[in-house]
UniProtKB/TrEMBL annotation:
Record keywords, A-Z: ATP-binding, DNA damage, DNA-binding, Nucleotide-binding
Native organism: Dichanthelium oligosanthes
Name listed for the protein in its UniProt record: DNA mismatch repair protein MSH1, mitochondrial
CDD domains, alphabetized: ABC_MutS_homologs (cd03243)
Keyword ATP-binding attached: yes
Keyword set includes DNA-binding: yes
Length: 1105
């Protein structure tokens, strides 16, 4: 027997409400301290009998026409609850016209409420019965319409107005135009609703015949509607992947963990199942873990049997999936893997965005590295990996920081997007090109010696993230095959045989609109017959237009009339997709068999697709109309063939979904880590040494050590000089004291962030570090009361600290800020002392900060605890904090100074000081204050990474560069070598630096080793002109250049040089000398700028090439 509590990780995110609401429905109140069977699989789909909520009118309607069977009653009640939550006045008025006798909520007595056979309402009811808990949008002409319950939801959550206003004699009805469908779906899914979309069968129909309709797809939170995307010429935006849904299960004497990666309805859902040690007091855990929530007061549902199977059954019910739908279950053991972060820990260091807390995610990655890479880093921090995975991540970061070759752009595609588009066969040519880019970038990394080593390391975390184990050789073979297959079918934009048709007398816009929706998508060789038919039909149309319209045009131009000049031209009627003659006053008053009269007689009024006359000025001929229909038919056939080829390729690649997901995940991780290394180097962070902890570690054994040299808060930039560096040598538990504002909380956050980053294999904010691979990192900061749960702040604090203490082992890091501050001082001091004793016995590492100085007077039995303090110093007779970690105890709180600084009235402060003197006058005590005198010696470590000198390890294959690129590279290298040698001989630079000219091709970017270093660069434009520049931010400068039109595929050559001054001199030298070598520059004027160094250098000073 197990009890499952499912709660959303992000409680404030409403789009998961239907999933949570359905899964987390309380069946009956808990009446026993032990789990009870409240939900039996054999009966869970059987609806409960409805006795309330259905009016007498509804029952009467149900008797007259039975539109609701027993199986729909539970769904009707579900919708009734949703209707009761409506708050907008317009939607509330609509709900008053609903009845609860059918799944649509239609009152058949109202206008347009008929549910007779053959009506649109009955057709919608049949569709709705298949997916009773989804909002149903039905295509009707140029609108998507919803009725009943669904109309109320559209008005409430999508901001739409009801059809027909708020008249009370008709059924609730609302809808959106076809062009606004995506926005409406986004609004609904953002609020947590799933949507079923019904489309009309397109094409001609007989008069008075009803259009056929079919369910074209569904939109769910995290899984958008993709029907028809294969036809569009733009990429589709997918929402962010679903957050982790925590499933906590209580067993008796069982502890394990599972990670369930579910490909559900073509979207990826991640469920982390954290099975805790069982207890009958299930509500006492508080915020005991990231995947655990306070049970009291929250909805839950009892299951019997396997919790995973029961949960998946519930998911099948919600999304209307087949009972035979198969899910891929990936189980990863927690053996050797740290525990997931506690919710309090994740929020207090900004892994989960929290107001007022510096975001660790924003410090770990550069600002332009968001989306999927940011989500990977977030998930990595929330669920720290095992030591082997962390070591692989760290080694990859180490290699990334030392490479000198250019790196790919790293095309990132979410697994949900790949799976859904391929399974639904809606991948368009743009997405196929992106998939090919993913595969090509993997192969590029494999072929490069430096990047190949990184790729091998990235396979380890990618295997954990996807649950797939792929060998490097197999990966290359699959990538090569799939990339080649895409290249065989998809047009990559370099073919010249798919230009839009163009004829002199037919508007270009017409051919562009007719052909741009299918040309340039697949290679012509696969649809040669269809393409040829279009060319023939277009030529025939041009001939017909010339023969039937041009004589009239010539006549119009030559005729002058006293009643006004005739007008006539060949125009494109965009709305009707036709080329017609448009004119007036062109008919001759006297027919004299002159030129053009025969063609005028052949003209007839143009009609639209419904046989109606378009207008008085639009004309066509039988021949033109026939040629136009033939051209339309040829274009339709070509478009059908192109879509057929795209969908065939999608079907073919469905067997390769696993390898595509794996490749995309590798690139997401690569982009995340490259971004992290670049940002961390800029901030002065370093890679720590991770020491594995023995899994057999027992209490009697000495705890491992953590060394953090030059530690600074992660939210400060050490390069800006505003960070205080601290050395933390942690061999045991610390009891930390210090004044208010002295840096205790900042120290705890800094240590927690550094330890977490370290055990994940990432760089840390310190000059050097040795970090044990902890089995858990637990941070408790401040606690607040919870009136909804009837708990005071001290109750919440005790609940959370109990969870930390009960889970702590000798391999844990426990950090508690201002322990027991929410209760009476004497007893709080004793509780705090007892907790410290307990953690000392456990032997964990950690920091307990406190203002309860009475702890030091208690007869505590401590063997593994040290006393530390945040230092103070006396300046002008006033005690001020130094924010440095010292040995000893600080009993000064600086409470009066802090209160005065925050604006407390002096009258209150003076009275408080009098009361303090009175209270302490009769007490004999000794006050010990740690004073730290300013040191004249500056810290020996400033947190900066001094990169090794660059070495050219890029092996260039013969003939790999174009002739111009090789010539530019050779000339630039020669000029720079001569200049640097000259500067060295003049002692202008301390050492001679090897000149390494590195090429960065199209869709590549410089490596992280260029961050913070001066460099000169030469851009080779597509017109063979050069641009010379210098910068300290090569990545940013290259991004700025490539953002300009025509520069996206430009090649760049760069050389890292020693210092800004040298870079300026070399820039000026190159600008002046390259034109003398026969190269064309676009920024010659910069060579005369006084700030660019020497503007005139004799040619003799430079050896000829």
């Amino acid at each position: 027997m197990q009890r499952v509590l499912v709660s959303s990780l992000v409680a404030a995110t409403p789009r998961w409400l239907p999933l949570a609401d359905s899964i987390l429905r309380r069946r009956r109140p808990r009446c026993s301290p032990l789990p009870m069977l409240l939900f039996d699989r054999s009966t869970w789909s059987k609806p409960r009998k409805v006795s309330r909520g259905i009016s007498m009118a509804s029952r009467k309607a149900n008797k007259q026409g039975d539109y609701c069977d027993e199986g729909m009653l539970s769904h009707i009640l579900w919708w009734k609850e949703k209707m009761e939550r409506c708050r907008k006045p317009s939607s509330v008025q609509l709900t008053q016209r609903l009845v609860y006798s059918n799944i649509l909520g239609l009152d058949t007595a109202l206008r347009n409420g008929s549910l007779k056979d053959g009506t649109l309402n009955m057709e919608i009811l049949q569709f709705k019965s298949k997916f009773p808990r989804e909002v149903l949008l039905c295509r009707v002409g140029d609108f998507y319409e919803a009725i009943g319950f669904d109309a109320c939801i559209l008005v409430e959550h999508a901001g739409l107005n009801p059809f027909g206003g708020l008249r009370s004699d008709s059924i609730p009805k609302a809808g959106c135009p076809v062009v606004n469908l995506r926005q409406t779906l986004d609004d609904l899914t953002r609020c947590g609703y799933s949507v079923c979309i019904v489309e009309e069968v397109q094409g001609p129909i007989q008069a008075r015949a009803r259009k056929g309709r079919f369910i074209s797809g569904h939109a769910h939170p995290g899984s958008p509607y993709v029907f028809g995307l294969a036809e569009v010429d733009h990429d589709v935006e997918f929402p962010d992947p679903m957050p982790v849904v925590g499933t906590s299960c209580l067993y008796i004497s069982i502890q394990c963990s599972q990670y369930l990666s579910v490909v559900l309805n073509f979207a990826v859902y991640n469920i982390f199942c954290h099975l805790l040690v069982g207890t009958s007091r299930w509500g006492e855990f508080g915020e005991g873990g990231l995947l655990w929530g306070e049970c009291s007061g929250k909805s839950f549902e009892w299951f019997d049997g396997s919790p995973i199977e029961e949960l998946l059954c519930k998911v099948r019910e919600i999304y209307g999936l087949d009972e035979n739908t198969v899910f891929r279950n990936v189980t990863i053991s927690l053996e050797g893997r740290p525990q997931p972060l506690y919710l309090g820990t994740a929020t207090q260091i900004g892994v989960i965005t929290t107001e007022g807390i510096p975001s660790l995610l924003k410090m770990v990655l550069p600002s332009n590295c968001g989306g999927l890479p940011s989500m990977y880093i977030r998930d990595l921090l929330l669920n720290p990996p095992s030591f082997d995975v962390a070591a692989a991540v760290q080694e990859a970061c180490r290699l990334m920081g030392s490479i000198t070759c250019s790196i790919p752009e790293f095309t990132c595609i979410s697994a949900a997007k790949l799976v859904k588009l391929l399974e639904s066969k809606e991948v368009n040519h743009i997405e196929f090109c992106r998939i090919k880019n993913v595969l090509d970038e993997i192969m590029l990394m494999r072929r490069n010696a430096e990047l190949s080593a990184i790729l091998n390391k990235l396979l380890v975390p990618a295997s954990v993230a996807t649950g797939l184990k792929v060998e490097a050789d197999m990966l290359m073979n699959e990538c090569s095959f799939i990339s080649q297959r895409i290249a065989e079918v998809i047009s990559l934009g370099v073919e010249s045989d798919q230009a839009i048709t163009s004829f002199e007398y037919i508007p270009k816009e017409f051919f562009n609109d007719m052909e741009s929706s299918w040309k340039g998508r697949v290679k012509r060789i696969h649809a040669e017959e269809e393409f040829a038919n279009v060319d023939i039909a277009a030529e025939a149309l041009s001939a017909a237009v010339i023969e039937d319209f041009m004589p009239i045009i010539s006549r119009v131009k030559s005729v002058m009339s006293s009643n006004g000049s005739p007008k006539g031209e060949i125009c494109y009627a965009k709305e009707h997709e036709a080329v017609w003659f448009k004119g007036k006053r062109f008919t001759p008053s006297v027919w004299a068999n002159t030129a053009g009269e025969l063609q005028i007689k052949q003209l007839k009024p143009a009609i639209d697709s419904k046989g109606r006359k378009v207008g008085e000025e639009w004309f066509t001929t039988v021949k033109v109309e026939k040629a136009l229909n033939r051209y339309h038919e040829a274009c339709d056939n070509a478009k059908i063939k192109v879509l057929e080829l795209l969908r065939e390729l999608s079907s073919e690649l469905q067997d390769k979904i696993n390898i595509l997901v794996f490749c995309s995940t590798v690139l997401i991780i690569a982009k995340a880590l490259f971004g992290h290394v670049s940002e961390a180097r800029r901030r002065g962070w370093m890679l720590p040494t991770i020491s594995p902890l023995s899994q057999d570690c027992v209490v009697e054994e000495s705890s491992s050590e953590m060394e953090l040299v030059g530690l600074f808060p992660y939210w400060l930039d050490v390069n800006q000089g505003n960070a205080i560096l601290n050395d933390v040598h942690m061999h045991s538990l610390f009891v930390l004291t210090g004044p208010n504002g002295g840096g205790k909380s900042s120290m705890l956050r800094s240590v927690c962030a550094a330890a977490l980053l370290g055990i994940c294999g990432l760089m840390v904010p310190s000059a050097s570090a040795v970090i044990p691979h902890f089995d858990s990192i637990m941070l408790h900061m401040k606690a607040y009361d919870s009136p909804a749960d009837g708990k005071s702040s001290f109750q919440i604090e005790m609940s959370e600290i109990r969870a930390l203490v009960s889970r702590a082992t000798a391999r844990s890091l426990v950090l508690i800020d201002e322990i027991c501050r929410g209760t009476e001082t004497a007893k709080g001091t004793c509780i705090a002392g007892s907790i410290i004793e307990r953690l000392d016995t456990v032997g964990c590492l950690g920091i307990i900060s406190t203002h309860l100085h009475g702890i030091f007077d208690l007869p505590l039995s401590l063997s593994n605890t040290e006393f530390k303090a945040m230092g103070t110093e006396v300046i002008d007779g006033r005690i001020n904090p130094t924010w440095r970690l010292m040995n000893g105890i600080c009993r000064e709180s600086l409470a009066f100074q802090t209160a005065r600084r925050e604006g407390m009235p002096d009258l209150i402060i003076r009275r408080a000081e009098e009361l303090y003197l009175t209270m302490t006058a009769n007490i004999k005590h000794t006050t010990s204050i740690v004073h730290h005198e300013p040191s004249n010696v500056s810290p020996s470590v400033n947190g900066l990474v001094k990169p090794d000198s660059l070495r050219n390890r890029l092996e260039t294959l013969p003939g790999a560069f174009e002739p111009l690129q090789r010539e530019v590279e050779s000339t630039v290298t020669m000029i720079c070598k001569k200049k640097l040698l000259d500067l060295y001989n003049k002692s202008s630079i301390s050492e001679f630096v090897d000149v390494v000219c590195v090429a960065v091709g199209a869709r590549e970017q410089p490596p992280p080793s260029t961050v913070g270093r001066s460099s000169i660069y030469v851009i080779i434009r597509s017109d063979n002109k050069l641009y010379v520049g210098q910068t300290d931010d090569l990545v940013g400068r290259l991004h700025a250049h490539r953002s300009k039109e025509g520069m996206q595929d430009a090649t760049i050559l760069y050389i890292v040089v020693p210092g800004k001054s040298v870079a300026c001199q070399l820039e000026t030298l190159l600008i002046n000398q390259l034109p003398l070598k026969g190269f064309k520059l676009i920024n010659k004027a910069d060579g005369k700028h006084r700030n660019f160094g020497i503007s005139r250098i004799s040619e003799e000073a430079i050896a000829t090439h």
